[in-house]
Amino acid sequence: METVAQLILKVLLSLGTKRIYGVSGDAILPLMDAFSKQDAIRFISTAHETGAAFMACGEARVTGVPSVCVATEGPGALNFVNGVADAYRDGIPLLVLTGQVETGKLYSNAKQYIDQQALFLPITGMTTLLTRPESVVDVIKVAWQKALGDNTPCHISLPKDILLSPAPMAEVPTITPLAPPSIDGDILSIADLLTASERPMIIAGKAAWPFREKVYHLAKQLGAGIIPGQGARGVFSAQDQRVLSGLGEAHIPPSLRETDCVILMGASPYEYPFIPKEVPVIQIEPHLQQVEHSLRPIYAVGDIQSILDKLIERSGGKNPNPEWQKKLQASHKSFLDMIEAEIDDTGKGTSISVQQVFSLLNHMLPQESIIALDIGEFTHWFDRAFLSRGQQVIISEFWRSMGSGLPFGLGAQLACPEKRVFVLTGEGGLLMTLQEMVTAVRYALPVIVIIFNNGQYALEKHKMEKAAMEPFGVDVYSPDFAGIASACGALGLRVKTPEELSLAMERALQSDLFTVVDILVDESVPSFL
Predict the structure, then answer these.
(1) Most buried in the list 159, 226, 267, 322, measured by CB within 10 Å?
(2) Which residues form a coiled coil (predicted)?
């Protein structure tokens, strides 16, 4: 007789699930048994539950649909928290499944019991406990629809005895496309403001990625400059004269201070502090809860494509300000000249500068590739020095979790096997999820990991120095990452001199193995922090 565990996989398959990330454990052994009896859904066995959650998050970031991760009760569920919190703060759809003790042991002192609903309540859009076999189909459907509709992780606890129960007769759901959400907001006032604006600027976040052609059409029609948010650096090519580099501590485009109207589209809170306070703000978001009321914006929320269509239609007769176009072009050129000058200044010594690495990546990373960014000081250098040619960038924008880069990249590679995936990380971040190298080799994922290795938590060190503190606790013991990669069955390359850099990257690009390029960079102290 079919079990509830088997029915769960059938339901998930009907909803389009192709992979589930996780680690086996006692409470989900019935689910592991169910996996063994089918081959339609692939179980990706990770080294650690944190890696599983981040891999699912990486997949969902590049597909836009819920990805699924599973862990056992107690420690397994707790190990999910960091990755699930990242999805929650960045608005990423996940279905999070955790095993639980038998229903007769709930709320007791049973081994590995914890109130999982209390645990996941602050970091999910929904958390529930499955207590009846008859409820399984409806509970999964509700969680899936909530995750997809609200771009949020949803969590279900699965007691072991329920998983082992005979499956009820139930109709397996089919995929029903969601109707576009209605538009809420004052489109007429937004259109009037855009028409009156002489110096408009668009800050485009990751929500703009699926609609980048329409966003660019609107920008061209308005005569607006475009600043890509940190999670959307690849939305448009950095070589386009309308694109004015990224926004953050590393660089603030001078023309932003001269704008008379800012259009925020899916930008993360990371960008908000850099918006001039006196400038009118228009915010376009999928959901009302993403509107930043402290900016006092005129907003439109709902179906972004429909919002863009309406704004394009209503601003069609606008004549862009020619003087503003000249300033945008000058700002674009001055940024490129600045980056080139910085590279020239740092490219004459015997050590490797971070700017040199990014100069090489600017030319070598394929246009259609995916870049998974970890968190660290190199991330700010990326903001400043990386010139995108249309690559998709994924990053923990709001949660800012170190260690997310490698598993993000592995999940993205599994979802997009036709693309090259690059992970940019520091040695500190990589140490936090280093064990997932084994997962990469196990599943033959040809991800290329590029390590900016300076042996320290450089961002923390430089912030402490700036605050007149004595740097402490900022040294990182860096093992031979290339040697570790080789021991795992991957290609490991260690780069110590500028002369070795280009050759190492060429070897990495030619390899079809999981590859680690460990680059020993100097301590480039950024003046912009």
Answers:
(1) 267
(2) none
| Of 389, 376, 378, 332, residue with least CA distance to 355 | 378
List Cβ neighbours of 335 (8 Å cut-off, separation of 6 or more).
244, 245, 251, 253
Query: Is-contact 239 265, C-beta < 8 A?
Result: no
Report the C-alpha gap between 36 and 167 in whole angstroms: 17
Do 211 and 69 share a domain, yes or no? no
In a domain, 310, yes or no: yes
- Helices first, then strands: H and E counts in the chain: 20, 18
Residue type present at position 100:
Q
* Together in a domain, 420 and 459: yes
> Is 237 part of any domain?
yes
Is residue 474 a part of any domain in this protein? yes
Enumerate the H helices of 291-376 as residue ranges: 304-314, 322-346, 354-364
CATH code of 153's domain: 3.40.50.970
Distance between CA atoms of residues 341 and 55, nearest Å: 38
Contacts of 268 (CB under 8 A, 6+ apart): 90, 205, 206, 229, 230, 231, 397, 398
The rounded distance, in Å, linking the Cα atoms of 276 and 274 is 6
Which pair of tokens denotes residue 480? 């031979």
Beta carbons within 10 angstroms of residue 515's beta carbon = 25
> What number of other Cβ atoms are within 10 A of residue 473's Cβ?
8
Looking at the structure, do residues 110 and 144 belong to the same domain, yes or no? yes
Could you tell me if 102 and 215 lie in one domain?
Answer: no
Question: 324 and 374: one domain?
Answer: no
Task: Output the six-digit token pair for 72.
Answer: 């056992």
Contacts of 291 (CB under 8 A, 6+ apart): 283, 285, 297, 299, 301
- Per the structure, the complete domain to which residue 212 belongs is given by 187-329
Asked if 361 and 496 sit in the same domain, the reply is: yes
Per-residue pLDDT of the chain (529 residues), as tens digits, is 899 999 999 999 999 999 999 999 999 999 999 999 999 999 999 999 999 999 999 999 999 999 999 999 999 999 999 999 999 999 999 999 999 999 999 999 999 999 999 999 999 999 999 999 999 999 999 999 999 988 999 999 999 999 999 998 877 777 665 666 678 888 999 999 999 999 999 999 888 888 999 999 999 999 999 998 877 777 788 889 999 876 766 678 888 999 999 999 987 766 788 888 899 999 999 888 888 888 999 999 988 999 999 999 998 888 999 999 999 999 999 888 888 887 766 656 678 999 899 999 999 999 989 999 999 988 888 888 888 888 999 999 889 999 999 999 999 999 999 999 999 999 999 999 999 999 999 999 999 999 999 999 988 988 899 899 999 999 999 899 999 999 999 999 999 999 999 999 999 999 999 999 999 999 877 666 6
